[in-house]
Design brief:
This protein has 212 residues and is mainly β. It has one helix at 2-21, and strands spanning 32-38, 42-45, 50-51, 53-58, 63-65, 71-74, 80-82, 87-90, 97-106, 109-119, 125-131, 141-149, 157-158, 164-167, 181-183, 191-199, 202-203, 207-211. The strands form 5 sheets. It has a 4-stranded mixed sheet with strand order 2-10-9-6, with no helix packed on it.
Length: 212
Amino acid sequence: MHRFGRKLAVLALFAFLTIGSGCTGFFVKPTLTSLAIGPQDQTITVQQTLQMSASGTYSDGSQQDLTGKVNWSSDTTSCATVSSTGLVTPVKSVSGVCKTTISAASGTVSAASTTVTVSEGTPTLINLTVTPNTTPNPGDTLTFQAMATFPGVSGQQDITSSVTWVVSDTTNMPLVQGSGQVTVPPSATAEQVTVQATFDGVPSNQIAINIQ
């Protein structure tokens, strides 16, 4: 009887767990809570394409690449379109500069979006500036900005997030690609570091940063 009773208790526990797993009390599947897409605020020419990515955050804190699973859209398809896999393709007939908002959506979660600027051609001039100064101390933060002049377009376009950075010493000046901001490491040594930006093969002016 003792052995039979123990078997009966095991079967009862198994049945309880099996029933429970089919309800909300056990093994609840995480739900999607937010979306993020990138890269943000990019500028491309009509000869280029741009691959977007989408990342989802779930109720348990986990993250997952959802690039090929979200619904992509472009609000100005006369400027650029976006495929189901997140590839942005400019319209070849773009004249001057145009902008479109690229969005990713999934179910009832708030959509994530960013602006993509499309230029008819390569810039004729890229002007690079830096604030607050060119003589930082270790630990100071610098902000670089790249402004481009495009053919047939009045005014300049901010292409800071789209340029490629060329830095003579990335150890003392760890400027991340796609970013215009850098913090000089506390361990940086006193020296001169040159910084330049390029876009579609066009270089900007060069800035000399003298670390104190």
